[in-house]
Amino acid sequence: MTSHKSTYRFTRGVLSLAVATAIAGVATPSVAQQDFALEEIVVTAQKRAESVDDVPITINAFAADGIREMGAQNVNDMGTFIPGVETNVGDTSQASFTIRGISTNDFGSGSDPAVAVYVDGVYTGHGGSALVNFNDIDRVEVLKGPQGTLFGRNAAAGAISITTKAPSQETEGYVDVQMGNYNKQKIAMGFSTGLSDTVAFRVGGYTNKRDGFINNASDTGIAGDSLWTEDDHGVVASLLWQPGENTDVILRGDYNKEDTDGPIGSSFTLAPDNIYDDYTTDNAGFNDRTIQGASLTITHGWDDFTLTSITAQRGYEFHQNEEEDGTDNARFFLTTDTIEDQSQFSQEFRLNFENEDIKWFVGASYFKDKIDQTYLVDATTITLDTFFLVDAFGAVFENPAAYVAANPQLTGGGMQGFLTTGIAPMLNAQLAPFGLSMQAVDIGNATVSNLNAANGGTPWQEAMHNSRELTSYAVYGDVTYSITDTIDATLGLRWSKDEKDFAIQSSYTNLIQIPTLTVNALNTSLPTSAIPGAPQAIPFGLIFFEQIGTPGNPELKNDAWSSVDPRLVVNYRPTDDMMIFGSLAKGYKAGGFNSLGDDPSFDNEDVINGEVGMKSKFMDGRMRLNASYYYFEYDNLQILKLSGPAGVIPTYNIKNADAKGQGVELEWQFLATENLMLAANYGWTTTEYTRYEQFDGDEPGFTLVGEPLSSMPENKFNAMAEYTFNFANDLAFRIRGDYNYTGDRVNNSGVGAGQEIEGFQVVNLRATLENAAGDWSLALYANNLFDEEYLWDIGGTGDGIGSPVATRGLPRMYGLQARYNF
Known about the structure:
This protein is mainly beta. It is 8% helix and 50% strand. It has eight helices and 43 strands. The protein has a 22-stranded antiparallel barrel. The protein is globular, with a radius of gyration of 29 Å. Belongs to the TonB-dependent receptor family.
């Protein structure tokens, strides 16, 4: 038995249960552990290895074994159990995370995410690659509040840092097999070995498949298909070279491929009874994504100094097709295609110093990336007709989309009204040279049947093409000085500069057919071809209503932003087992450009965040109690909203607003006996807009001032219990249960006022049999044990035609997981 296996034993990730409840830093001790205390986890949040209990930051840290115990296969699965954090991502290629109410859920190339995601110290760059299934990971750290003096860029709301396992000279590895309902099949492995006295190699990989859990009940060619499938695989490899006693060189490479159906939901207004049942859809969609990257990390230490260099190249490409209306009703047919290709290069240097009285580091980073994006919207002229009718009846009916769907005799009325009011000025201009005007030529009397015959059911596609080149520089540092034996003060400072070159292009590619015009003097309808100067068709845009640039010649834009951001922390240790800290930090996120419209650039975000907290241990290390209170104010918060001028289908755009928020987070962990572990946490978050600039299409007087920010529940509570039964023959049987309550949330990114999303409760259960040596384990699990029906989100582009999509949470998932360590 190797020493590695002995250590592994029942150390189910230095955070076994607290993973589920997001209580950072510890795991249930092994049956052989004699000190009968909570275990610590070492993190690198401040760019040096230290116990999570010694870091004056609100941080949740999770080790790989504990994450597996929690049943999470990616960051999205962890969000439910972390106070102050929401994930709820139904779209892996357009992931957006929320920390303490702050997120940027824009999928366009012109903006950046508010929550920075790092993999092995490398910034992922964009939401398209932020969410992948874990692959041979060592730990995950979630830091809350501005982290600009510690991380490379865009960590104003917080940061998520994922670290994969490093190679070691010891030959060891594992195989993990999972099978479950909906034909779940997942195999993961990791293997490390020494190749020579100075070289070690590690490789990890997985393959994952699952059938969909929703049946398509539509009478279409894809009827009966299961929706919301999983099909992805990945590999990560690393090579460690130690040319000297104080030098490590690690070369890493990773690859991930996903090929599934698209994000799926059901219409909240047209099919509310189907949200948790069979769906009716005429397009299952697809998500085809490839991510790959490589990095070289060189670390050299001497005396009290450590120099680190991280050079990385990453990139991804994806094509995602998504149904946006959540129904197979032809009146509401609306789909989108997002085609994106991104590549990035980054270089970071850090110099660390540490002695008994002072610790500091300085860093410099360079980041360059390029994104090319094409965004397509597919509809029909029937969809356009529906939009004009829904828009017209919006002030009359509470659910105008349902009224239009239930009254097929209205078909054509919306297009006729649009042609009368929207096309008439254009016709006037074209008829004037011939001595004709709308007083003599009347489109309003053209028959509905003629309009429908010419335009009804015609495919309608509009496209927006954009690209962005970003160059970012930053210099930052952090110094901690021990004023006394019990008081430390930390001062950090960061200078950032971001420059973006943005190109955008959109042209009219559709024609509104004008079949007949009525010449009033003759009182008869004539073909447009018989009237001098009358156009038979008019090019038009009803989604991307502006023509921007020309094909091959996009409109070019450029802007730059810079900021100096300080951080001050003071921490006091009244005893060896308690730390009280206070911090004040400024955060920054670069401005950008709307990817779906010809608007000026929006401003950079600035946030001031204050926080006081306590980290403590009691009962000789058997109990941990952490608490924090925070307050923030955002200037120029970048908010995303469906918007557009009257008469066009709304699209997503960003404007700046101001906001504030505050909250409390409590975390408790208690090792009641050597066999019983209890934990709980609570998060209270309240946010509101304090300034709101109206978007195009907002009703006069509409404002979000006083309304909460999207996606964050005010109350969130978790509880966990785990008990281990030990047997004389060196076997252990462990059973644990996790409970989560997530309160009501709101989505303010749709048309008009926010859409409330009801709270929910989820219970997970896991039973594990393992041997004391840690060679093998066999677990039965059930996530969402009681099959709670709840929603992740309500909204999407379909909201613009009165049919927002409700994205449901995962149903009960159960199965068997076996692991062998060698």
